[in-house]
């Protein structure tokens, strides 16, 4: 069921989630006396939970604090991809009028350091301080002393996000709110009623001050989960989204908030110890269970679970160090998403599958991945490997001493064919010149931190006990081929094959699949 706002709604049980888990979560919230305003759960294409605590409601805007930083990062990504700025540009170059008052070494502070909160400052500025400041916020930021070398130390700083907002406004000739409204919000259905505070300089506050609906947070989270895609349109570039949500920094200190400043990582206040977190991207937090999130002071959050293809957004009124709700979401709700069969045996039986096919994720594929790759010397006799897209399928060919062998793999679904693919070493010495029936799917996995794109295959040789997992890692014309099997009487994994793309390649004929 689609609502007027365009979001698809489903009952939890119709989307594979036991409603009792949701009820239990609400019971725990009540028992813990957590002051909740809203809680929305999106799972694999549909909103399966939408809860509001009176007088809060779906149409009411909510003040967002540091969640706003993650929204500002989208504007930076647009400007970057539009060629309006570079991440290694010195910040001071955008504010030459403030150079005379800036400290020595200011040229070493780059746009990238604002994104990762590594500006070089010893303490971070909170909006609670700047909202009292009636003069230039940019000037105040740029005259702060540099205690660290930019890029070396994470110090949480809302002022970094403000400076990003100011830079985007200078290069785009419009506020980040206007920029995002035209390029992002209008396309993904963010409420046109959103508003954003401005500084004395007329710049959106960047690190806080966005007013939006909780459903808008869901949309932003889904957009980042989907690598910048929305209804088939590439709203944000895949490269930017992956960098923004990725692990740019590991094991960092949030810093103790005094009300006006965030203290440095080694500083405490009245016995309060700085909270450590898993990591940070470009204005997005990395969290447990391979999650990433946008978080705001006093209890707002948009948590994205990549593996579960889920987004959970909530608003509340609670202390920033109160992690009870996050624990309930991570430990109780997350594992239950999509895992319920409704208690009906026929439904459960119909749903049984060896290895379900994941989404194809074509948007994760690198440019120029198709073609033939010449294999380097190897002990498997492989001469070349070829990859070719055929509609929504992939043809994968291996040429070795036995000849050419092709497997057809469906993307997002299984496809059955017959293949002569060599594999005796993994298949208890079985190999058939006339071929084995194979049911195969393919999917693009998230890009690794080292920049390698991974195309994963699952080959079930349906008339045997063997199921092969194959991964092809691709980068800059190079291919690394890995193959392993579920069961075998001896080795279960073959040595890596390295190959290089040939300058002239031919497509694989579909007719070669038996």
What is this structure's SSE topology?
Layout: H1 19-31, E1 36-43, E2 46-52, E3 62-64, H2 67-81, H3 111-115, E4 124-125, H4 127-130, H5 137-142, H6 158-172, H7 176-188, E5 195-196, E6 210-212, H8 214-225, E7 229-230, E8 233-234, H9 238-245, E9 249-253, E10 261-262, E11 276-280, E12 285-287, E13 291-296, E14 300-305, E15 310-316, H10 324-333, H11 345-351, E16 371-375, E17 384-390, E18 393-400, E19 403-411, E20 415-419, E21 436-445, E22 453-460, E23 467-475, E24 478-485, E25 497-501
Parallel strand pairs: 19-21
Antiparallel strand pairs: 1-2, 1-15, 3-6, 4-10, 5-6, 7-8, 9-11, 11-12, 12-13, 13-14, 14-15, 16-17, 16-25, 17-18, 18-19, 20-21, 21-22, 22-23, 23-24, 24-25
Helix pairs in contact: 1-10, 2-6, 2-7
Characterize this entry briefly.
The chain is α+β, with helices and mostly antiparallel strands and 514 residues long. It has helices spanning 19-31, 67-81, 111-115, 127-130, 137-142, 158-172, 176-188, 214-225, 238-245, 324-333, 345-351; strands at residues 36-43, 46-52, 62-64, 124-125, 195-196, 210-212, 229-230, 233-234, 249-253, 261-262, 276-280, 285-287, 291-296, 300-305, 310-316, 371-375, 384-390, 393-400, 403-411, 415-419, 436-445, 453-460, 467-475, 478-485, 497-501. It has a nine-stranded mixed β-barrel with strand order 16-17-18-19-21-22-23-24-25. It has an eight-stranded antiparallel β-sheet with strand order 2-1-15-14-13-12-11-9. A three-stranded antiparallel β-sheet has the order 3-6-5, covered by helices on one side.
